[in-house]
Amino acid sequence: MSIPIIHRYLIRDVLGNFAAILLVLMLILLGGVFVKLLGKVADGSIEFGLVFPLLLWGSVSSLTTLLVVSTFLAILLTMGTLYRNSEIYALRTMGIGDMALVRLFLWFGVAVAVVLLMLAAWVSPAAAVKTQELRQAAANRFDLAAVAPGRFISLPGNDRVIFADSRNDATQRLEDIVLFSGRGNNLKVMTAASASQIDDDNGNARFIDLKEGNFYQGAPGSDRYIVGRYGNSRINIPGVGAIHRTRLKMLPLEALIGSGDRARLAELHWRLSFPVSILVLTFLAIPLSHTSPRKGRFGRVAIAILLYVLYANLLGLGKSWLESGVTPAWLGLWWVHGIFMALFVVLMIRNSGVRPRRLFRFVATA
User: Fold this and answer.
1) Whole-angstrom Cα distance, residue 333 to residue 327?
2) 66, 29 in Cβ contact below 8 A?
3) What are the DSSP calls for 334-353, one per residue?
4) Residues near 304 by Cβ (< 8 Å), separated by ≥ 6?
5) Do 203 and 184 reside in the same domain of the chain?
6) Residue range of the domain that includes 172
7) Are residues 203 and 275 in the same domain?
8) What separation, in Å, do the N-terminal and C-terminal C-alpha atoms of the chain show?
9) 170 CB contacts (<8 Å, ≥6 apart)?
10) 291 and 322 in one domain?
């Protein structure tokens, strides 16, 4: 068997595992999001026509993480198959050791890293903008009369929640209302006997008309709060312009480069962490897959998943530290990648059977 044939065999195996894992993860993700969106349709928060566009564009932001996980697990399962079938020992007798396998799978990792870079740099920001536009469209089409009684519904603007106990079908007004607005130490709760939506003739201004109720305002758990009663009150429903926000995740990569702003710098390093992490995980997958044939192809998968979770959490922690100034700007998130590359070196040395004392002695005399 020639080396190119072996390469084709391994790449075909890893591609098959990659496609299967990615498909399963996408089905799980889309299924959960789809059920959540259907719940919003049922309670009147959004129209059914917006479900599939929101599902499509909303899933793009999660695709980067799914690609990383799928690539890592695909290499682990491919290596696990080699150990289970004792094929790894045949490869070693042909001179194909761990470093040769690292170089082989690194080509696959680089290809995925390029896709991740394009996703993180331009596709995901564009999808975030499109998702925001769809949410704004849903906010403009919000109709209080379609709200299902007995459920907590988020109003457009993301900082108010309304609950209605019942609906009067004759007047189309919701009855026995509780409206929560604000957050943190400035929470306001309003009750009302009934509520209805009022639109002006041009459709530019919309209000919730509350009748006969009380309001309570203050900090939760504090004894300092304001209590009042009203006969009629109107709450504005924000339109497109009022709720539009440009978030960091909506900015293309070039808008983040060279900025002295800490938040933008952290966002830049966070996006770059996806293609970099897939390369690091490609390196790590080879020594992590070392196992005996009796343990099967899933022998080290649990440990590998725990390491990935640790990796992802450290990246999230590093981003927070970078935003708050705990870590210097020049360090970024490179220290996290460095830790796991050091782990790769340690695992490769351990799997090679070289004792640390002998290694240090060799380095000292070199």
Assistant:
1) 9
2) yes
3) HHHHHHHHHHHHHHHHHHHT
4) 72, 73, 76, 284, 285, 288, 289
5) yes
6) 144-236
7) no
8) 38
9) none
10) yes
